[in-house]
Amino acid sequence: MNLGLQDKVVFVAGSSRGIGKGIATVFLEEGARVVLTGRDDAAVASACSELSPGRADRVMTFTGDLSQTAVAEEAHRQVVERWGAVDAVICNIGSGRAKSGWHLSAADWESVFRTNLWTSVGLVEIFLPQMVEARRGTITFISSIAGIESLGAPIPYGAAKAALEQFSKDLSRRVGKYGIRVNTIAPGNILFPDGTWQRKLNADEAGVMGMIAAEVPLGRFGTPEEIGAAAAFLSSERAAFITGACLVADGGQTRA
Known about the structure:
The structure is a single chain. It is built from 8 helices and 7 strands; from the N terminus they run E-H-E-H-E-H-E-H-E-H-E-H-H-H-E. It is α/β, with parallel strands linked by helices. The protein has a 7-stranded parallel β-sheet with strand order 3-2-1-4-5-6-7, sandwiched between helices. The longest helix is centred in the middle third of the chain and has 29 residues.
């Protein structure tokens, strides 16, 4: 299926590795122009080196901490200067690393919400005005099934992802009249090198694979490119009547 993404400008936050890199890969395969971002120069350069052969004119890089407003504003300025309007923003920002248990300080909560909610909100505040003016564009948030069900993840992480999903839903109702669509993807267990699940496999392969067999009907991990395919679809005109949705991509793990 041709998704009609040829030459569309796509800003993928957190795309030097893992899910974000998989998302960038799929958009590039669909002919889009993609901005690769990350906080580490070497990681961004490595991703660019891997993804740009044969399409270097469609790859742009930006290195910096997008949780900092001035940095995110500079990223927006650079992509607009090179390619003009941004057609799609993929807010792939988050980390499941958080303190477990229920005895948590304000600082424990604040750090997790800053990573998993506030940075995405901040990106929207920077990129959305131009979309409103153009009366077109898509925003896709990468959340987690931990925001949908209680799965044993740290409480602040699940709460932050649930808040992100609610923000996405509410935002979609407010900006639809401008021709802008807003959706969320909630991935389940996605395996990639140096990721959380790879580390868990290294520590206890039998236990982890037993959990996958018992809890995931498809009986396997997902891949970053499978999340990328979902993001590309939601950002395309093939999904023109879809907004305010939360697409769960978890191999059937969640039950709600």
